[in-house]
Amino acid sequence: MDVIAPGGARRVAASADACAGPPEFERIDPALGTVASRAAACRARDAVAAVNAAARAFPAWAGTQPQERRRILMRAAALVEAEAAEIGRTMRAEIGATDLWVRFNIDVARLHLEEAAAMVTSITGSVSHAPDGMSFAFREPVGVCLAMAPWNAPFVLGMRAIATALACGNAVVLKASEICPATHLLIGAIFTQAGLPADVLNIVTHAPEHAAEVVEALIGHDAVRRVNFTGSTRVGRIVAGVAARHLKRCLLELGGKAPLVVLDDADLDAAADAAAFGAFLNQGQICMSTDRIIVLDRVADAFTDKLVERAARLKAGDPRTGEWPLGPVVNAAGARRLADLVRDAVGKGAQLRAGGPAGNTFMDATVIDHLAPGMSLYAEESFGPVAGICRAASEDEAIGIANDTSYGLSAAVFSRDVGRALAVARRIESGICHINAPTVSDRPDVPFGGVRDSGYGRFGGQAALDEFTELRWVSVGQGPRAYPFLHGHQQPLGRTS
Questions:
Q1: Model-level pTM?
Q2: N or C: more exposed end of the chain, with fewer CB within 10 A?
């Protein structure tokens, strides 16, 4: 199928877009209110066709020499930079991305592809010996992997969802987000140019109202053996439920409420820089965004003044002009929800120190001081440019506030005493914790994922092999065997020699 990208350019997506027939749906530009892109409105039958195509392509791809899979992944990595201008135009139109966020997506997506390429020839197993033979544990591709990527970091998380799966020899169906279909289709175009064989990667786009039937059809297909989903906890629960009914293994990277703890011996300027970066990058629309800043009382006023000063410079506007550090939030409904969160907090005693609702889809960097339990912003993931400050009388209280959430994805601790910070980090319940660094960070060679309502399973590095391969045991017997009940022996059944 074709997709109309910003500027009128037409691009053909990956060869297995089994969606040439359905009508199109439109994605609206959140800054301008005009049409950002059009894509095929696939239904369940189209989703089934995409999986069928992937299943047919899987055996040949699984049998492809590792060096060839690595070459294709490296060619795709090189093409990412060559397509940077189009990626940027598309991301700006579909999600209101700033130039900085586009560059982050491009650079880290390339790293994910390079890491996957390096992994192709390092997928290892083990050998063990026994008197009666040898046992081998080795990894094999699972078959068809279903990947569901979100809109907020569309290019990098789309690449992350598929790169390791392809490296391991699997075929992939990528369910594109209805908010950024053109950006996700660019991933298919890049792999087509890189020489990925036909139908190994299939991209399914759909209108918002058809999401449920498409997801059900994809997960329920017999050929789909693994599911990975990055997105909200609400939708993640639905995906996990559907997968459970079909006994499909899931990797879920879901929402967060990342705490940043500032101890009383912290470098306050460094902490304020990290807090502003983590809270306001991409308008706070990142699963790792710094949502609650927990500061010990002794330094709370000084730290808050520094953060407010930084936030006051971060205004929102159309990212195409290059004049604004922040762009729009994803849609008007999201902006209204953020405004409600701010009003609720202020109405219950919090102080608005910077920013606030700006109308339409724009919201300047916002700082709420004296955030406390009972305020919606204290518990809910804001997913917007809003940073709440909680004050704590002691280190123990700060840790208690950090853990007073159902989420557990990312966290950060600031202290000049690294040993003290490490002790605090060990007590915070999160899959990721950074010391003297922002809550927002991404590296493809480390285990990335959360606990509790932030999901389970891990992207990245060797940990990802468990998600995208089957670990098999094969044994080779040596010499004659005496089976206890067949030959009169009374040895325990666990012994075969």
A1: 0.91
A2: C
The verdict on whether 180 is a catalytic residue reads no
Q: Is 287 a catalytic residue?
A: yes
Q: Is the separation of the CB atoms in 201 and 144 below 8 Å?
A: no
Return all residues near 29 (Cβ < 8 A) that are at least 6 apart. 35, 36, 93, 94, 96
State the maximum Cα–Cα separation within the chain, in Å, rounded to a whole number.
Answer: 87
Per-residue pLDDT of 154-169, as tens digits, reads: 999 999 999 999 999 9
Q: Strand 258-262 relative to strand 412-414: parallel, antiparallel, unpaired?
A: parallel
Radius of gyration of the chain (CA): 25
Question: Out of 58-67, 213-222, 238-247, 458-467, which region has the weakest mean confidence (pLDDT)?
Answer: 458-467
Averaged pLDDT of the chain: 92
Tell me the C-alpha distance between 341 and 125, whole Å: 50
Q: For the residues of 195-223, what is the DSSP string, one character each?
A: TPPTTSEEEE---GGGHHHHHHHHHHSTT
For residue 207, give both structure tokens: 């209108």
For residue 206, the model assigns a pLDDT of: 97
Q: How far apart are CA 356 and CA 300, in angstroms?
A: 21
- Closest listed residue to residue 50, CA positions, set 11, 28, 15, 18: 18
Active-site position among 94, 253, 381, 467: 253
Which of 206, 200, 175, 221 is CA-nearest to residue 14?
200
CA atoms of 329 and 179, how far apart (whole Å): 12
Of 287, 381, 390, 433, which residue is the catalytic one? 287
Q: Could you tell me which residues come within 8 angstroms of residue 495 by beta carbon, excluding any fewer than 6 positions away?
A: none
Q: What's residue 491's pLDDT?
A: 56
Q: What is the three-class DSSP state of 135?
A: strand
State the Cα angle at 443 between 258 and 464, rounded to 5°: 95
Count CA atoms closer than 13 A to 456's CA, side-chain side. Answer: 6
Chain centroid to CA 314: 25
pLDDT of 289-305, one tens digit each?
A: 999 999 999 999 999 99
Give CA–CA dist 212/220, Å, rounded.
12
